[in-house]
Amino acid sequence: MAWDTLVIYLNITLNLIILERGDATEKDTRVPGATAPGGIIIGGIFPIHEDVDKENHSFAPQLQPCIRFQERGLVRALAMINAIEVMNKSPLLADVNITLGYRILDSCSDVSTALKATADFTQQTDCYTRSNTCGQPVMAVLGASSSDTSISIARQLTLKMIPQISYSSTAVILSDKSRFPAFMRTIPNDEHQTAAMVSLLNTYGWNWVGVVTTDGNYGQSALDHFVSQASGKGICVAFKSILPQSVTSQDVCSAIVQTARTICKNPKVQVIVSFAKPTHMMYLYQELKNQTLRAGQNMETMRRIWVASDSWSSSSTVKGNITLEDIGHVVGFTFKSGDMSSFREYLTRLEETGHDNMRNNTFMQEFYMQLNASKYFGETELVSKAVNRLREHTHAGTIFSIEMAVSAIAQALVSICRSRDCRTPGKVQPWEVLKALWMQEFKLRKKSYKFDSRGDINLGYDVTMWRSDGGNIHVHNVVAEYHPHNNKFTHTNQSSNQQIQNLKHIISKCSNSCLPGQFKKTAEGQHTCCYECINCTANYYSNNTDMDQCLSCDTNKEWSPDGSSSCVPKALLYFSWQDGFAVVLLTFSALGILQALLVSALFLHQRDTPVVKAAGGPLSQVILFSLVISDISAMLFVGRPNSFQCKARQVLFGISFTLCVSCILVKTLQILLAFQVEPELQEVLRKLYKPYVIVGICVAVQAATCICWLVLKSPFNHVIIHPTTLLEDCHEGSYLAFGVMLGYIAVLALVCFICAFKGRKLPQQYNEAKFITFSMLLYLISWLLFVPVHVTTSGVYLPAVEMVVILISNYGILTCHFFPKCYIILFKKEHNTKSAFRKNLYEYSSKTTDSVSVSVVTNCRDKTSCTSLRRGSIKHCLRRSSSI
To answer: The pTM is what?
Structure first.
């Protein structure tokens, strides 16, 4: 056993020495790899090593030795080998009588090395076309791993139109078929991965994040797409750290140190998105720990949420000697995984067969040698340890992508070989395989797949969340799936949902969220995510957190105070029926109506008595009727106004009160004609005195005024908008017409007042002039006060002002004109007789005669005329008394 191991070690050492010296032949200088014969050869380029030794400064063209062996690169190569072996055993290839071989080379994670490997593939094709005795041409190439390497070799393979299928290169530029027509991949491009990351950040409200990426096409492309998509969702990038692409570069250490300092200086950045290489992340975590300990801080300050890209989300080596408790949370995006049973069986067979599998696989030889370098193992123990190490670096998503690529190539070849004999060299060309890959679907484990128009297979992503189990970290813990077609996440189960929901309490924001009622104000030159919260001003509101600006209320209907999260409907105000003051006024209106009706009934009952006749007889009923209508019009000032109500209340009051005052005017003129006019003039005025004509003319004038008012510019209901309320009121339409209507009544009332004032000394039973004088004076004063109050008053109680004045006017007439009469009728019946009236009249006449006699003796020289004047007045008074 020990002898076999020694042979392997010497063989590998000899090969490396030959490569370094560059003394080998062209055939011997080829990159070490893994090969297997077959009817059709598939090439593979995998990063078996992590870098190349660039310290050799020789100008001679030679291969640089690869360093830093990667077990995960070897696992990918073995996955391709297993997939080809599985296809060779399938009836699909047996039906067309072909087998697949492979030639797998190492890119060493270096573009130049990968290009030399690609040149080896294309040289085989050139040799064959020139009919030289070279190896079999490569019909398709599987790889490379990184996008930078894939971009470089894709340009070279495109020259021969050799199809290239990558299992992990995600740069968006590779989807450009005008530049890379022969490139395809079994995974989505980074455009979808960055969209998934942005969607995750947006879901949890993390809008202040840092980005760490590796330099190169992949890192820059992922960074650009992430920043573009994040800004569209209002997510700000606090810092960007770009690490050198080579993990052995002299600048890596300083870049890692600076990145760690940047992270420590930004404690508000609790979420960091990383597109870096696994080794870079391992160095970064170690540096973060060192800086935290040097600063004397608790390790909790180092914790962050790390959103990992597919480049390192499944790499358990990232943690180094740091625990997950120190790192924080790692949420990773990995490619969709499939059934791993086939590859597990392959590793089991590899463990059982031991060294028999490595004769044509220098990668396995080197792997065994490295494992045995530090400690000598027996053969069985060495193989077992090697396979266990390989199992640790098995990533289900990558294995599935490699199996898909091999299946696609195999089934494309089958579709070609069904119509020709592919065993004959030269019958199949690489471009034909490329065409078949584009045109046809392929199946893997009974599921169909097809490359889209950009050469991608977009199945979405598995979302993983690293989980610690004691000292072990489980990196394949799938908690959700991301679906690119609708940009949504679905949780795999309840426990995984709970795991990822636990991240909600973590806040990664530059500024605290602005509450509803506030808006974000960003200072000039600052990130949009760094702001201060300002309260919304009056009549503006914000109903959500972190709003960029406040929304405006509809000031016609709504309002809001400062710092409001919603608009408040403006209260609709009007002189309501439920208002206490309105209830009082309505009560007085109702009492006025009731009293007028009772007085009317009493006067009708006592219509033949002297008091009722002295009060005007039928005219008193008209006055009482007009007072009832006037009280009803007062009621129309209460309640929510409408168009009819606004028009009716003023017109009804104007005409009814005009009727009332005109009747009082007739009564006043009647009294003056009876007692105060000279006999000659009395005879002329008596002929012109027509009570109902006068009343009709007075009312007609007012009616004409109201009709013109209604026709030309009638009153209407309208809403007066106040800052916090809506006042619904009646607009008088034309204030000129309103003034004319009231002025006309005032003129009639003034005439009544003057005439009544002249007759204030009439007999007591006839002395309505005093009451008319008082009632008209009350009316004029109340309406004179109404004008300035109405002009200067606004609000709910403006209608109440006019209502009060109307009621005062009505009650003034009712109490002054009718209540004294009712008192006599009800309580002084002895005064309600003709004899009482005659007696009072004679007493008044004798007083008047005496005063006239004195006046005649003193002033009259024509005794005859004075005597006739005295006798005529007394005669008229007696005649009027007889009629009562």
So the answer is: 0.67
